[in-house]
């Protein structure tokens, strides 16, 4: 992997041994965080001695709190030119990503591609990407509600009742519609998504986003089918999406993520015509 | 004739039935997707008619729904084509576009004829795997477009050179 890619606003560093992200610097504000990112999957529960509840479309219930890492050392290729810089990471035949930095952009783009999720091993898989940062979050993170009110989330806690946490992973997952962030006094890392997803912060300084899932059991909520969409070729659905990352001081972060969220939701419409003007 | 009501109805059905993947049987999910696709096609006609009126050009306009996997027949095969960028936001935006192409050098100009910095990069392996037999573009043409508030801009893209191919990505 390259040591780093950068434009006039952002510098992104990589671990040259593993090819994974290792840091992010906002060159305007001179703030830097450690930032590692990788892909993992949770093994979907098929029920256990505590409960027969399986993981399904309505119910997210991993059978372990530890997700399985897909690859610690992806194959990496790089492209650098005056318009865009790309680090292409190939984690497995069903997980890859492009880390992309445009010349004029104040955010880092992560374009992930996941699927078709293999299930021949008979394990249902719930695929996440996790961002582990040096930001001291102390169990707090923030998610939006349809791009409007942003709510504070606290690990193993509900503001209106005494929670007895029975699902240490799923019980800390929340919806994200356009954005989520973690912050401390100096730094705020905001993630803008292109679709509604599930998100959590299981560890201090981390954000994990569920990007895809393929399951083998129904969850007994009335559908009577496992969540295993066939895709074009009946071998499972492939999904490609984008995450935009912005590193800012907490006090000015909204100046960045509000326009960014708008641009993501209301993207320009492209159309084409043959020939000369 | 185009209309936006078809998409409005399809979206209303999807929202009313909580059409999140997996919370209905697969054939129902397929039906939701089909309704949305039909609605989207009607909207494309509507947008096309509106842009034709605004631009004064009746040249047929196409939309490429698979740009995210580098599939777009018109950009892949044309020696010259126009890109229209409609911005629905009430402020100007800059946006980077990736167009699937087969040439290695292109000339991109905005509506004033000013050249736009652009680069041709190889299509990634992941994209080739995803699209399978749906397209054959070897490269992506990357450049930044600007569009006015709730308006559109037009770019002209002209093939300059078919070969040689740009260098492949460097191994990590």
Low-confidence stretches of chain A: none
Oligomer: heterodimer
Residue ranges of chain B: pLDDT <50 for 5 or more in a row?
Answer: none
Q: Characterize the main sheet of chain A.
A: 9 strands, antiparallel
Could you spell the SSE succession of chain B in H and E letters?
HHEHEEEEHEEE
The strand count of chain A comes to 19
Q: For the residues shown, what is the average pLDDT of chain B?
A: 92
Distance between the termini of chain A: 43 Å
> N- to C-terminal separation of chain B?
51 Å
Q: What is the rounded Rg of chain A? A: 19 Å
Q: What integer is the average pLDDT of chain A?
A: 95
Structural class of chain B: alpha+beta
Helix content of chain A: under 10%
Number of helices of chain A: 1
3D shape of chain B: globular
SS element count, helices of chain B: 4
What fraction strand of chain A? 35-45%
The fraction of residues in strands of chain B falls at 25-35%
Please list the strands of the largest sheet of chain B in the order they lie side by side.
2-7-4
Q: Please trace the helix and strand order of chain A, writing H or E for each element.
A: EEEEEEEEEEEEEEEEEEHE
């Amino acid at each position: 992997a390259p040591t780093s890619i950068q434009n006039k606003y952002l510098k992104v560093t990589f671990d040259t041994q593993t090819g994974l992200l290792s840091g992010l610097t906002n060159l305007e504000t001179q703030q830097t965080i450690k930032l590692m990112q990788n892909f993992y999957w949770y093994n979907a529960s098929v029920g256990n001695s505590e409960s027969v509840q399986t993981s399904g479309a309505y119910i997210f219930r991993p059978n372990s709190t530890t997700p399985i890492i897909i690859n610690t050392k992806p194959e990496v290729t790089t492209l650098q030119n005056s318009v865009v810089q790309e680090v292409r990471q190939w984690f497995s035949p069903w997980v890859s990503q492009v880390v992309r930095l445009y010349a004029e952009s104040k955010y880092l783009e992560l374009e992930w591609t996941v699927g078709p999720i293999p299930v021949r091993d008979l394990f249902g898989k719930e695929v996440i990407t996790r961002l582990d940062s040096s930001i001291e979050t102390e169990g707090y993170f923030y998610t939006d509600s349809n791009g409007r009110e942003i709510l504070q989330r606290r690990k193993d806690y509900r503001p209106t009742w005494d929670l007895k946490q029975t699902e240490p992973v799923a019980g800390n997952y929340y919806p994200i519609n356009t954005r989520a962030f973690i912050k401390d006094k100096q730094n705020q890392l905001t993630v803008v998504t292109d679709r509604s997803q599930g998100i959590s912060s299981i560890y201090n300084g981390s954000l994990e986003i569920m990007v895809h899932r393929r399951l083998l059991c129904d969850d007994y909520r009335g559908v009577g089918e496992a969540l295993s969409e066939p895709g074009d070729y009946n071998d499972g659905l492939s999904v490609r999406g984008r995450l935009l990352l912005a590193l800012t001081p907490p006090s000015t972060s909204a100046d960045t993520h509000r326009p960014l969220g708008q641009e993501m939701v209301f993207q320009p419409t492209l159309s084409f015509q043959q020939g000369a003007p | 004739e185009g209309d936006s009501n078809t998409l409005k109805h399809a979206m209303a059905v999807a929202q009313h039935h909580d059409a999140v993947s997996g919370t209905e049987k697969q054939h129902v999910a397929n039906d939701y997707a089909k309704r949305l696709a039909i609605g989207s096609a009607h909207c494309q006609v509507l947008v096309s008619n509106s842009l034709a009126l605004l631009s004064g050009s009746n040249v047929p306009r196409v939309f490429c729904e698979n740009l995210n996997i580098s599939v777009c027949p018109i950009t892949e095969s044309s020696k010259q084509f126009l890109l229209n960028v409609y911005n629905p936001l009430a402020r100007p935006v800059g946006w980077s576009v990736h167009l699937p192409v087969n040439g290695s050098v292109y000339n991109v100009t905005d509506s004033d004829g000013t050249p736009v910095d652009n680069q041709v990069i190889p299509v990634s392996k992941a994209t080739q795997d995803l699209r399978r037999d749906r397209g054959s573009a070897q490269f992506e043409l990357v450049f930044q477009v600007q569009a006015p508030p709730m308006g559109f801009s037009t770019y002209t893209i002209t093939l300059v050179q078919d070969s040689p191919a740009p260098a492949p990505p460097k191994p990590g």
